[in-house]
Amino acid sequence: MYRILEILRRESGFLSGEGIGKQLDISRAAVWKGIKKLRQEGYEIEAVTNKGYRLVLHDTMYNDKEIAQGLETKKFGHPIFFYKITDTTNGCLRAAAVEGAPEGTIAVAEQMTAGRGRRGRHWEAPAGSGIWMSILLRPTIFPSEASVLTLLAGLAVCQALEEETGLSPQIKWPNDILLNGKKLVGILTEMDCEMQETHFVIVGIGINVNTAEFPEGVNDVATSLYLESGRTFSRKNILQRVLLNFENLYEAFISSHSGFAPFLSRYKEKCSTLNQEVRVIGKETFFAQAVDITPEGELVVIRKDNGKQEIVFSGEVSIRGGK
Fold first, then answer.
1. Which one of 92, 268, 275, 311 has the largest count of C-beta atoms within 10 Å of its C-beta?
2. Could you list the residue range(s) of the whole structural domain that residue 36 is in?
3. Number of domain units in the chain
């Protein structure tokens, strides 16, 4: 049926069932069965007697075929595993990675039932409203360098959203993206490695795109592109833009052998954590002033209790009085 879809996509007007059948060497009855299946998947196909069939294009269509259509990346998104519903895309992609899936493979879900954020927090991932995807990377880097990939993903998403929507999201170090002070995007990076060898890295990205409301207890800290702008957006277009931006940054990172330093100035421009009073939660909890980011992507803070400078490379940082 997807061969029928591709033929209809290339044709701007109507195409007869007989004409489609001749191109594919199948019967008109087989064409009709294929049309019926495509309609069941949500495609709007107009049928007019003595004219034939015409595909009515909608940006709202969201599946592996639509995402692949027009994708400009070299590796990212090749191939695509698409799930109507799953527990987590990170989990799905981990299983594929163990089986030898190539770098750039992505898992995308219409709905996730067990989405996770930092420290195991639940991430709301309902159907039809957001982008829930994971990207498989196989970088030749030491495990200690893998945290940079989270920062690059955040930068890629932030830039993609600005390009696609005209809005101005900001990055909260290290892995959240905020819009008007509320969480818009979460990024969860997981790794399979040994002491000195990285087998693979999975970067999970959750974006609240067209979510109209959040449950009580979440609505005061989370937001969506729709809630902040009053407009709906094409999830497919945003996803494609994220993949393209991330691939470009990732390739530059791998080829430069210079760590995070080449991307530092761009990251700082987008980082809302700098020059803010923050609470650092790790082995101990303390308040500090965030003053800089190192060339390795670590957060530099000055502690409120003793005035000493400290480097934060793990744990959780929240902006005091914010999210």
1. 92
2. 2-56
3. 3
